[in-house]
Amino acid sequence: MPRARQAGLPADKLWNLGLVAILTALSAARLLVVATNMREFARHPFWVLGLATVDSGWIAVGGAAVGGAAAALYALAEGLPLLRVADVAAPAAALGFAINRVGAFCAGLAWGTPTTLPWGVTYRSAVAWLWYRTPLGTRLQPVQLYDAAASLAILALLMWMPRQREGETAGTWLFLYGVCRFFLEFLRGDAVREPTLGSIFTLAQGLAVLAVIAGGALWLRREAKPAS
Fold it and tell me: What does the alpha-carbon distance between residue 61 and residue 161 come to, in Å, rounded to a whole number?
C-alpha cells in the first residue's frame, strides 16, 4: 500500500482495519435484517445464512455505521491517527463505491427513472424483478453508472492532488461525493427511496448533506492557521 507508506502508516494494520470494517458492517446489516423481520426468520431459520434479503436504506446505513465505528475503535486501539487513516482510506472508498454501483447496474438494483435518452437501459431479467422489483421492458436512466463515473472521477482527483494536511483527502471525497449523490438521487426511480425531512429529501440525500458538511468542516480545519 504505497499511500499508507507515504502517510507513515503500517500497511498490515490498515489491511486489518479494512477487514474489521467490512466484516463488521456485513454482520451488523445481517443482524438488522433478522431483528426487523424476526417472525419470518423464526419460520425459516436457514434464511439467516443469506437465503433472503431486505433491500432497505436504513439497514445499509446501520451496517455501514457499525462497520465505521468498529474501524475507528480498531484504529484508536492500535494508536493510528484517525484523520490520516481516513485520508488513506478515501481513495479506496471511492473505488469501492464505483465497483458497488457497477454491480448494482448489472443486477438491476437502485434503478433509475424512465427516460427516452438513447443510452437508457432496459432490463428484461425476471430475477431483477423478483429481487428488486426492477421495471422490465422500460427504458431507464443508468443512474448507477452515473454514480460509478462520479466516484471514478473523484478517485482520479484524489490520486492526483498532493497531500498537504491531515483530513484534506477525506474531506475532498466527502464533499464531492456528497454533492454528486445528492443530485443523482433525483434520477433514482426505485421504491427503496425513503422520504425524510418532511418528504423533501430521501435518506440518501440527507446523508449526502451530512457528508458535504463533514467534508467542508475538514477543509475549514485545513485552512485554519495554527495558533502561534
Answer: 29
